[in-house]
Amino acid sequence: MRSAFSDLRLPVLGVAGNDDQVWVRLRMQGRHTGPFVRFRDGRLDQAIPPTGREIDVEQVHLLDVREGKVVRHEAIRDDITMLGQLGVFPPAPATAVRMLAWRMSGRATRAAAEVAKLAADAAGTLTNSSRSATAK
């Protein structure tokens, strides 16, 4: 999300929980300035070229907690509203043409590869940070 939306903000609207679960209600706000890439079953499903549009959508995140660590995360997002704010659903003709051109030119595949690399690099950084903290 950070590579797709600049000035990404996630203001928390509420938090509730018990010993095993935490529920966080928040808003996701930002400007769509990078490719928004969606994968399904490990394969590129959709790549939306930057629109420059603002988004403001609500989400709920459910976190399962064991021994003080998050062991499972599930998000309930309002993607239909977000895609509507981006002009993708229902598809505006100009947006549909841009998305098709992105796919046909190979830019969608290249954007997906770059986003996947950024995510893998971030995951590696987090894993390495965890190992460093454990070693100390």
Structure characterization notes:
The protein is α+β, with helices and mostly antiparallel strands and 136 residues long. It is 36% helix and 41% strand. The chain has 3 helices and 7 strands; from the N terminus they run E-E-E-E-E-E-E-H-H-H. The strands form 2 sheets. Strands 1, 2, 3, 6 and 7 form a 5-stranded antiparallel beta sheet that branches. The protein has a two-stranded antiparallel sheet with strand order 4-5.
Structural class based on helices, strands and sheet pairing = alpha+beta
Secondary-structure element order, N to C? EEEEEEEHHH
Count of distinct strands: 7
Oligomer: single chain
Q: How many helical stretches?
A: 3
Biggest sheet, open or closed, and with what strands and sense? 5 strands, antiparallel
Low-confidence stretches: none
Cα separation of the termini: 32 Å
Question: What's the shape?
Answer: globular
Give the % helix: 25-40%
**Rg result:** 17 Å
Strand content: 35-45%
Q: Indicate the mean pLDDT.
A: 86
Keywords, separated by commas or semicolons:
alpha+beta, 7 strands, 3 helices, two-stranded antiparallel sheet, 136 residues
Helix and strand arrangement:
Blueprint (H helix, E strand, L loop, with lengths): L4 E5 L2 E6 L3 E12 L3 E5 L2 E6 L5 E13 L2 E9 L1 H7 L7 H13 L1 H29 L1
Antiparallel strand pairs: 1-3, 2-3, 3-6, 4-5, 6-7
